């Protein structure tokens, strides 16, 4: 596998970011969106993140281009929640299962520590084994499950909530043991 470069996302990356997301909308329960997004929505997302100072990363393959992305978003807009964020990670369907997810999660944890955030929440469709394993591998612990709060592809879906509390010692982005 050629070396994948992980770097902050730029505005030029948005069509590729959106295409990876839209494929997941149509083919997975990773997101409970039904309809693909237009580029304007992704541009607004980008501007919002720049304004809030929250990180967005891409994984770039020298041949295939952008093959994955990750970000931190506000968990809730009320000020008392300002030290908590929610994360997103999307890897292109043809590049899953090769460790890119971890490479995109690691800088989010590092940035969260640098920004003095306290907690990252991952809301994961309970059937999404790869995402559950990925987050657990990086120290996230399941704190609860909501049953049948989602509905997509003609079935009810459970959501698992995983959380990482960010003590200062993880500021280097060290992978959890195991
Ligand atoms: C979830 C996702 C980000 C994981 O990234 P990835 O690069 O495919 O995963 P990795 O190769 O880093 O593997 C992560 C872990 O999941 C496991 N895994 C990978 N694919 C798997 C699968 N299909 N089923 C079960 N486990 C799987 C790996 O073995 C690894 O576990 P380990 O560290 O215990 O060995 C990626 O598959 C993806 O983008 N999926 C679609 C969108 C999505 O689900 N986003 C997350 C929304 S919460």
Topology diagram in text:
Elements: E1 5-8, H1 14-27, H2 39-52, E2 56-61, E3 65-74, E4 84-91, H3 100-114, E5 119-125, H4 129-137, E6 141-152, E7 155-165
Parallel strand pairs: 4-5
Antiparallel strand pairs: 1-2, 2-3, 3-4, 5-7, 6-7
The structure holds coenzyme A.
Residues 24, 28, 30, 89-91, 96-102, 122, 124, 128-131, 133-134, 137 line the site of coenzyme A (COA).
Description:
The chain is an alpha+beta fold and 178 residues long. The chain has one domain (5-172): Aminopeptidase (3-Layer(aba) Sandwich). It has helices spanning 14-27, 39-52, 100-114, 129-137; strands at residues 5-8, 56-61, 65-74, 84-91, 119-125, 141-152, 155-165. A seven-stranded mixed sheet has the order 1-2-3-4-5-7-6, with helices on both faces. Strand 4 (84-91), helix 3 (100-114) and strand 5 (119-125) form a beta-alpha-beta unit. Helix 1 (14-27) packs across helix 2 (39-52). The longest helix is centred in the middle third of the chain and has 15 residues, at 100-114. 26% of the residues are buried. The model is unreliable at 171-178 (pLDDT under 50). Residues 24, 28, 30, 89-91, 96-102, 122, 124, 128-131, 133-134, 137 line the site of coenzyme A. The site of coenzyme A has 22 residues, from strand 4, helix 3, strand 5 and helix 4.
